Amino acid sequence: MEVPGELALHHGGRLAGVHVAWRLEGPAGAPVVTALGGISAHRRVYGENAGDGWWSDVVGPGRALDASRVRILSFDYLGGSGETTGPRGDETFPHVSSYDQAGLLLRLVNHLGIAALHAIVGASYGGMVALAFAEQYPERVAEIVVVSAADRTHPMATAWRSVQRRVLRFAADCGRGAEGVAIARALAMSTYRSPEEFAARFSGAPRLDAGAAVFPVEEYLFARGADYAARHHAGAFLCLSESIDLHQVDTGRIFVPVTAVAVREDQLVPLADMRRLVARLPQAKLHEISSVYGHDAFLKEAAQLKPVLAAITGSTP
Known about the structure:
This protein is α/β, with parallel strands linked by helices. Helix 2 links the parallel strand 8 and strand 9. Helix 1 packs across helix 2, helix 3 runs antiparallel to helix 7 and helix 4 packs across helix 6. The two termini are 36 Å apart.
């Protein structure tokens, strides 16, 4: 989808020639549910086989979000590493808000001739976008499900991401941008999971390599960081990481029914923030779950999410 003319952004920037890459799949004529994930998610939510999409353990025919009953719509984020317009190379890219992502989703819904979405299911950054959409365009969505996302970011989470962005910028100044992405992502991975999981998986002894001790958790983090750096642009990481920390919606303007899911072990979106979010919303309910996967529980806990998501599709949990 091409956005005509210039796109005016929430924080004052403007972009011309914006392209939006999207995907809609599922039974023709079924209600449409938008599924959105974290900043590394993309428009391919699921496929025929588990592992074909970023949320394939949770979304698909017969899965927690049953794609045999609804059509699944998603898109690559503005400012990300997908095929939607984003930063490439060294050019300056404007600040992007969760409101801007919501506005692009509205344009996409209009482009497809969809009167209203049956639901938006958003996890992490996607939950922020869902809240922004519900505030701005309440007549275009019947309900939203928000997993591990609040109305604003916690200062501790911003602290961790600020260090990641500083690493990226320093590496770029040194001409080592890809290495900076790998290091920043490694640091990010340490905030996504819980201390309990790391204690269970990485308590083994270190190995010695060229006079340095290399710890099991260190090998894991930097392997994940290298994988990420091979697939994502430094500028996109910076743009969407900053977008998370700029996120702030007005809960007093959200009247769409909201189902929130909080993970007690989530280091990035504390349980207290999720409880405060729900307390400020007139039509909201909160489900609390526990998971050693922490913030990443939305990717791993299909069984715990199924009762919540089954209510959207009318299937049996």
